[in-house]
Structure formats: C-alpha cells, structure tokens
Amino acid sequence: MKKLFYQMGNFLGSYTLTLVLLFFLMFVIVVGAIEQNYIGFDNVQKEYFSSFFFFFQIWKIPFFFPGAHLLLLFLFCNLSFALFFRFQWKLELLGFLISQIGILTLLLGTFLSSYFFKKGSLSLYEGETKSEFLRSHQYELAIIRIDPQDQDYLLITAYPERILKRRGFLPPKNLPFSLQVKAYYPNSKRVPYKRAYKVVPLPVHIKQKENQPGCILRIGKVYEISLFTDVYHTLRYRNKNYTFVLRKKRESIPFRFRLLKFTKESYPGTDLVKKYESFVEIIIGQTVQRVRITPKHSFRYRDFTISQTSYKYNSKLGKYRSIFTVSKNPISFYPYFSCPLIALGLVMHFTLQFIFSPSRGALRE
After folding, report:
1. Rounded CA separation 26/253 (Å)
2. How far apart are CA 4 and CA 8, in angstroms?
3. Is the distance from CB of 76 to CB of 111 less than 8 angstroms?
4. Model confidence over 36-91: pLDDT tens digits?
5. How does residue 176 score in pLDDT terms, banded at 50, 70 and 90?
6. Which of 53, 100, 84 is nearest to 338 (CA)?
7. What is the pLDDT of residue 146?
8. pLDDT confidence tier of residue 147, bands split at 50, 70 and 90
C-alpha cells in the first residue's frame, strides 16, 4: 500500500504530467485568442479562461477540454507533489526549492484572484458624492422604496444575476409577496405590447457591454411584469409602493468619493485632448483627503484602486461627467511576494550550482 502511495505521488509530480498540462494550457490560450474575434474578449474570459471545462469544435466535431482554471489547479497540485515526492533535499538545490515555492505562490494567487477580483465603474458630476460602484458585466434585480418625505431610495433587497438565471421562485427575504422569475434573457429588447411593453430575447452580442438583459417576473399570484435594463417599474401593494429595476450590480466602497473639479486641456487650435484629470475628495470617517486622479496617476486605498478612465459631456446639463474604473483585489500582494521569491531562488540556484560544480573543483586542483 505504501509503495502504491509513493508511485501515485511520483506520477502526479512527474515532469511528463507537467509538460502535458503546459501543452493543454497553451492550447487553451491559442483557442481563446482565435475565439476572441468571434465571441469577444469578455466571453472568452468567461468560457475558456475562467472555467473548468469547455466545448470546442474541430472539423465540426465537438470535443470536451479542460479550462484554464482546472489546468492551473492541476499544475499547482503537480508542482506540490513534485516538491514532496521527487525533490532531493540538498544544499545545492536550495535555490530551486525557493523558486518552486515562489511559482506555487504565484499560481495560488492567480487562482484566488479570479474569484475575489472585482472591477467596475464609477461616474460623477462635479459636486456629486458616491460610496458605491457598478460592476462591469454583472446585473441584479433590485427592489426599492421611495421615502415620501425626502424622495430618497431605500433599498429593500437585491437578487444577483446568477440567481435570476436559474429562474423559478426567489428567496422571500421578508417580502410581503412571492417572486418568481418566469424567464431571463442575457440580451433583449423592448417591444410595445397592449398599453405597456414586453421584453423579447435577442442573440448575445460578442461585446458584452452591448447586451441589455431583461426578465419576466411574476409578483404574487396576480401581477406579471417585464423588466428591462435600468427601466423602473412601480407597483402598489398593500398601500405601499415597491419599485423593481434590473440594473448593474452595486458594490460598496469603504469611503465616500466626491468629485470637486474636472479639467480637460486640448492641443491649441484642435479638438484633440492633451490631458484630463479629476480633483476628488476622499472622506474616510472624519478624515478628508484631497487627491488628483489622472489616467496615469491612480488612487489606492487598502484593496481598492481607482483610476481615471474617460469622461462624457452632457449637453443638456452643460457639464462633464468624469468616469473612473474601480478595482478591488484583496490578494494583489501575491505577485509582489512571489516574483521576487522566484528571482531570488534562481540567483541562489545558479550561484550554488557554480560553487558546488565538480568542474570548478577540478580547476582548483
């Protein structure tokens, strides 16, 4: 039994398995690069690089292949088994050991980052303050109420897109009525229907930002409404108004973000933009910090990074809207730790190999 255990460990840590995994990883990268022209970068990222399995047709025959996530997980296990079952614990191999630990750390960070990394956008006019950002390609069904005293939105609950895609009944979450998703469309359009409208499905666009999701929602046993992206639908139930909206998912940030001023400078005599920047105020509790954010100068706080992306001019209001990209990565320190560790291990490995080299001993004699 012990012999079989070691044989299995040696196989799982073999260099042959490493080469096979690297071959399939290169295959996934090539397929993703080709498919990017047909289904877009975001869909390639989701179907090939952020998945465990995918289907790919070769000569119109569908084949089942492992995705990049599964390959990275197997590669991590392969290097771990190689470290415990095949590594020779010698002083001259100390640098090799450090480099392999660095590679394992980098693979683990890559795998975890795909789950915990969040990215979205934040747009403000001068004088506006926000403490949340919109996820790039994720949506949610929000149920809100409007306070009649100050007309502020009061969020009751929100259901993420992954739950809506399952259809069926939604968790009650202390609502006085039941909710059932009859249909959910990743891309849709509104068409007139009787005195209102309804949503009909459309083919998914290769550019994910062009898709407009829609859904058909049954409320209680009587009402059935069609929801389209960013279109509010208000329903009165038991003398209370409830507003339903299918919108981009909101994520909170641990500070208030206030745009003080936006400036744009063009080249003389042309409409070509030379530079643009935003002066913002970061409010963290009782602390107020003023910073300048440009496309090359970002603001960082804990796991958050905010950078200037673009701007838009609102002709009706006569002012600019500054647009920022917000990213959250709680394990962003992994590359800063693993890459120097790999470099240190390589330097130590070649140094120790030179010191313990038999040819060097022969030269001394």
Report:
1. 37
2. 6
3. yes
4. 777 777 677 777 877 787 777 777 777 778 888 888 888 888 888 887 777 777 77
5. confident
6. 100
7. 65
8. low
DSSP 200-223: EE-PPPSSGGG---EEEEEETTTE
Separation CA 278–CA 297 (nearest Å): 10
End-to-end CA distance of the chain: 49
What CA–CA distance (Å, rounded) separates 330 from 118?
A: 9
pLDDT of residue 342: 85
Instruction: Give the burial string for 207-234 (b: 16+ CB within 10 Å, else e).
Output: ebeebbbbbbbbbeeeeebbbbbebebe
Two tokens, residue 348: 């130590």
For the stretch 315-359, pLDDT in tens is: 888 888 899 988 888 877 777 788 888 888 888 878 877 776 665
Q: In this structure, what token pair is assigned to residue 202?
A: 């459309």
Q: Over pLDDT 70: what percentage of the chain?
A: 93
Q: Where along the chain do its domains lie?
A: 2-86, 135-250
E-assigned strands of 29-128?
A: 53-58, 61-66, 118-125
- Alpha-carbon distance of 52 to 35, in angstroms, equals 17
Distance from C-alpha of 298 to C-alpha of 42, rounded to nearest angstrom: 24
Question: Which one, of 334, 359, 293, lies nearest residue 110 by Cα?
Answer: 334
pTM of the model: 0.70
Q: Residue 160's Cα: distance from chain center in Å?
A: 15
| Half-sphere exposure in the Cβ direction for 275 (13 Å, CA) | 8
Rounded Cα distance, 340 and 330, in Å? 19
Amino acid symbol at 284: I
> Residue 47's CB: how many other CB atoms inside 10 A?
18
Pull the structure tokens for residue 138. 């994720």
Q: Which of 133, 153, 124, 117 lies closest to 45, judged by CA? A: 117
